[in-house]
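Researcher: Next sequence.
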Amino acid sequence: MSPYSWKRFRQKVTKQKLRLLVKRLVIATGCAMLLFFVLNWIFPVPDAISYSTTITDERGEVVHAYLTRDEKWRMRTELQEISPLLQKTIIAKEDRYFFRHPGVNAFALARAAFNNLLHMKRTSGASTITMQVARALEPRPRNLVSKTIEIFRAFQLEWKYSKQEILQLYLNLVPYGGNIEGVKAASQLYFKKNPDHLSLAEITALSIIPNRPSTLVMGKANDRIVKERNRWLERFYKEGVFSKKEIEDALAEPLTASRSAVPVYLPHLAYQLKSTVADGPLIQSGIRMNTQLKVEKLTSDYIRTLRLNNIKNAAVVIIDNHTHKIITYVGSADFRDTTDGGQVNGAAAIRQPGSTLKPLLYGLSIDEGLLTPKTVLEDVPVNYSGYSPENYDRHFNGLVTMEYALDHSLNIPAVKTLERYGKDKLIGELVSCGFRQVQKDRNKLGLSLILGGCGATLEQLTGLFSAFANEGIYVPPSKLQNSKPLPGVRLLSPAASFMITEVLSKVNRPDFPLNWTATEHMPKIAWKTGTSYGRKDAWSIGYNKNYTVGVWVGNFSGLGVAELSGANTATPLLFKIFNTIDYDSNEGWYEPPEQCQLRQVCSESGLPPGPFCTNLISDYFIPLSSSTMVCHHLQEIKVSPDSSLSYCETCAPATGYIKKLYPAFAAGVQDYLTANGRSFSRIPPHNPDCEKIFGGSGPMITAPQNGAEYYINRKAPEPLQLAAHTSGEVSKLYWYINDGFYKATGPSEKQFFAPREGPVKISCTDDKGRNRTIWITVKYVAL
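Model: Next structure:
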């Protein structure tokens, strides 16, 4: 065979071998990959990690945290907290080829194996950061089998995660002694800061603890930690990892750190968020810690001054009206106080809201066209099927404007307005604003709803008032910093919201606290107070363009206190808070919106003037919405020349009468004026010869209620009231009980009687001979 032929034969054989070798390598690689995928499917990487629930403020600073289920402080380190300095230092110390290998450094493994065999003992390791993560996820004894499993798990991790995510896992799981795991927990407990705020010296000091966590204990072995830290810093300089200046600064930095307690701010809100938010272990609240701490101190100091009056607790919620975030949340005056349940969350507790819902009702009634600020309402005794509301001071005021009724927080005008507007409609608006207890009890609620006869929380009420600050749009306030803003609900028109704000911003009000004088630099605010039945809850909720602040003061034990009131107990704290968070604010006040216009109305009714109106005043109204009914506070009556008789159109003579003006008071107002000795021009008695009038059915019995059942305490029986409404010419009423004469009274006088058990017939006859009869049922019971 010639040399040429031999050469071609060798080349042919070599190519065949090379092809065969490549083929075998491809097959081996494919089988290895198939085996890896099968094992990866059968034995998935155990990467379910239990983290400490961590609450942060609006800037991301940790303010509260909870242990994991296995009693570890393991706070999740987020990718954005792995600063370039932290990443560079950890990789330089633990795994300089981290970004180049597939999870396992083959050269480091070979070198470690050779050294261990040469010395017949373990002299060095070859674990990459990925392999250390695998070992932390699945701790095993340090042997060859465990190392093999670690290598497999490392490949799994590299397949599933990016390098940055693997580094994040490492920083979350690295041990720092005791029950501290992860760089964030160590950073918080040792340096009281987040990982992205650590210096080079601090990062290096932390990085050496995992090698000997039982001996290098921060706070106990700081000298040894500094010595080891400096050795690594010098090594970093020799390897060119950091500049000379960076190393010199780090070497000069002292180490005074020791283990401290985890922050425990916002205990009430933190617990609430931990229980309700399921978006992960890190919950970023919208709390503004500077404001939070100031308000906590104000609240604690303020309640300390009230303890002599047996008033022991308070709660505060503050909403930023621009972002709709809750920036301050104080659940009690002192979380550690055991004398009145300081751990109770007063901001979320369901309480009676007192008069705090009245602004909403009046605003809704303005939009409905029922009211304007100058509309005159009746503040006189009234009875709704046995329900007779009373004012806070148990006095009546006769005729008052809506704005007077609101800034004096009168109860009877509010109840009458609710009766006109519709209880169910108001309940619907409250439900749309998140009043869950109102929704739950909606079938049980009556007209007393507007006086606080329902359940509400400070969170809900503060959110409701933020709608007034937002021109009538209710946006559910959020406790989370990064939550998507929820769509707003149009609760009131801008015009109605402005009118209510104007009323609530007056300072010449009876609920202005008597002992408050520091108002010189206080920002202008609108506010409403409320006091629940039995003086168990005092409320004061205020707002301006910047903030809405809700304050509750009382006792978690439910104890009522005579000195407790919204005006004199809750409002001073409200003013102190506004003076602190918005001191001397130059923020502008609300301007009348375009739909809010002025018109002339009669001062006697608040309606557009009629033909007999002479005293006119200005009033806000909403065109095409507010009522255009003209005033009829005076009525022209035909009377006899001596004004002793009045005539209707049916019985008026052709001549021989005169026309006079008389006030058109309702019967209840007439009764009130008469009972209080206020004179007014009464319409003379009607012509007795008029058959149209005297063919009527007689006086209207208003108490007791026809067909009602009355249960009377057998041991302490209380009498029932007799009352009736009559026409203006009636001067005498005659009462009969079970067809027996009982008593003669004036038309506005109220009498009482003790009924017998069983059916009772009650009759009333006026001095014109007209009669009315009702029946009731009386039962005596042991209460």
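Model: The chain is about 35% helix and 15% strand. Residues 3-42 form the longest helix (40 residues).
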